[in-house]
Amino acid sequence: MNGRRIRSYFVAFAKGYIRNPIGLFFTLIFPIILILIFGAVFANAGSSVVPLYVENLDHDSPASVAFLSALNDTGAVQVYVISPTAGNLSAYLAKNSETAGLLIPDGFESALVAKTPVDVVVFTNPAAASQAGIVIGAVQGVESAFNLKEAGGSVVVSSSYLNVGSRIFTYIDYLIPGLIGFSILTSPMFSMVNISSTWKRDKLFRQLSLTPLTRAEWLTAAMIWYVLLAIVAALVMIFVGRTVFGAHVSVVPWMFPFLVAGPVLFVSVGLLAGSVSKTPETAAVIGNVILFPMMFLSGTFFPVSGFPQYLQTVAHVLPLYYVIDGLNDGILFGNSVGALRDLVIVLIVAAVLFAAAVSVFSWRED
Amino acid sequence: MTAAVVVKNLVKTYGAVRAVDGIDFTIETGEVFAFLGPNGAGKTTTVEILEGIRPSTSGEVSVLGKDPWKDARQLQQRIGVIPQDFHFFPKLKPREAIDLYSGLFGVPSRATELLDRVELPDKDEALFENLSGGQKQKLGLALALVNDPQLCFLDEPTTGLDPRARRAIWAVIRGLKAEGRTVFLTTHYLEEAQLLADRIAIINLGHIIAAGTPKDIIQRYGRPERLQIVGDPAMVEPLRRQVGLPVEVQDGSVSVELHAKGDALKVLSWVDSSGYRYSSFSTAQDTLEDVFIRLVGASDHSAMDIAPEGDAA
Predict the structure, then answer these.
(1) What pLDDT score does A162 carry?
(2) Cys-Cys with B68: which of A279, B52, B87, B120 at CB 3.0–4.6 Å?
(3) Which residues, listed in sequence order, are joined to residue B34 by a DSSP beta bridge?
(4) CA distance A147 to B75
């Protein structure tokens, strides 16, 4: 390793990158566009109230009305009572594309009085998992209160509701660490996929192999550049998130280890993908095959904890998950232990992939 | 003189294809050595083995006393290379490219001097991707000289260039020789080799089929000098009887092989007095190109006899 050579090559590499508008667009502008789009679309996601359509077959008995009123008071759902003559509730929901319904059976009040079990039926749409969760939670809460009251007990334990981290988080707060992770993935990986395949075709590696620059020096210079880009992109995204959407995110020391280790990891992934491809076209396809699952399953746009179990299992295999989880731990939750655990995983994966990439990637010909 | 390059029984195979099939040659220090051959003859494979970017299959190779594959890093400091179809980073300007190379080689940048030397205008706005083919090659040549090399490998440096750019590159090559550097030049322009090279080797189908100075090769493999008379073809028979030399009709004119100094005079005085109509005459000698085409043609045929698939290599 020779500092002078790394510096010389770094300067040339940075110039090449800056003079290519497409690369800069994907590094700096594209994540901002994503913040603006997703931020605008989900601006109210944190405070939305789920509409709950109710068919009351208990003839508006005082108990059933009290039950619905208690549901409304949770603030989580907005009750809309539909006429029992409107027909089958499930069909009504489907016909009107509504996601949640509640059926109060005939004899609800008499069952309460008689203290015999009675079921209310909750309809939810599995495709709207988070809304289903809200509805079920609200109904169960009201049921417990009713059961307790009817059983003659008094409330001993209750809970008040706060969001995790004892701060109120909006969607944009989750989105920004996710998009920082996303930019850590995309620009180093796609640049490397592109470089390692097209430079081979254009014989630029052969050209470099005629100079004293070593592969390790070449990679080091490139990685320094991508680390700098990742830091700049992260700062810009935090700035935009705060100023445009009032996001509760700030620059914390814990994000920097990920801004260094992340690009190292994804430079290696890109180099591997590019090295095993015969043509730039194949390389681009492999790059996309790697990108898409990582983009959607690693918690970039939606928290992984909201995924079904099997998808969570998949997410835990993807390296980007640990980058984003670590950024969340650092930026949102101030959870150093969690961030450190994620960082260790990222470093181990980065070291393994880096070694693999260096061994697969060759400058000289056969 | 010590040899700059020694190659003994060099073989390079790709699967079943023998791209280079047991060649030997030596390049003396300070000479311009031209390596000629049709496309696919094994020129570039040989050069790349000498440059240390491709391993050989077998045989001995010594470049400035080193094994180019094993000692590539030491050799890099002493050799300069323009690869075939030279490419560079598209977004760099020529001066920046030279600065980069100087930084990598750890030498002070002589960008102005080198750009002057290859007659590349020092235009600040021109990125590599916007340079013409000739300007790109000139930059390649400048880069090859950054480390002040003892030995330069120029792999088809003028292919596809216009005559002016080609002449500019020839001037640089002559300058290299004048400074005592050794030049290994591959080309398929025969006139280029004839003009620049001290010695030539012709390679075809992985074999060297002729080697020596351009003059030697023409003398050894070329046909004798000829007198060509543009005139009545009916003179062929009487002329042959009269002067006792091979006479034939070639490209519409009467062609007489000259074997001795006075032959031309003898032929002309007979034609003049014979009454056969003629308009002009000239003497002709085989060029390197004539020899090259005949040699390559002949070796293609003999190779075809032995191995019908050989010419695909």
Answers:
(1) 46
(2) B52
(3) B185, B200
(4) 88
- What is the overall mean pLDDT for chain A? 83
Cβ-count burial of B252 within 10 angstroms (0-12 exposed, 13-18 middle, 19+ buried)? exposed
A204 vs B48: CB contact, 8 Å cut-off? Answer: no
Tens digit of pLDDT for each residue in A232-250? Answer: 999 998 998 888 888 888 8
- Decide: B256 and B267 in contact? Cβ < 8 Å: yes
Residue A169 backbone phi and psi in degrees, to 5: -100, 140
Chain A residue with the nearest C-alpha to that of B146: A211
User: What is the distance in angstroms between the Cα of B172 and the nearest Cα belonging to chain A?
Assistant: 21
Tens of pLDDT along A93-146?
877 777 788 888 888 888 888 878 888 888 887 777 777 888 888 888 888 877
* B-chain residues near A191 (CB < 8 A): none
- Domain with A63 in it: what CATH number? 3.40.1710.10
Q: Which domain holds residue A148?
A: 49-163
Q: In chain B, which residue's Cα lies nearest the Cα of A209? A: B53
Whole-model pTM: value is 0.74
Indicate the pLDDT class of residue B124, thresholds 50, 70 and 90: low
Domain extent at residue B29: 3-78+149-220
| DSSP alpha helix (H) spans, B157-223 | 163-178, 190-196, 214-221
The number of domains in chain B is 2
| Cα-based distances in Å from A297 to A37, A133, A190, A283, B213 | 19, 20, 18, 22, 69
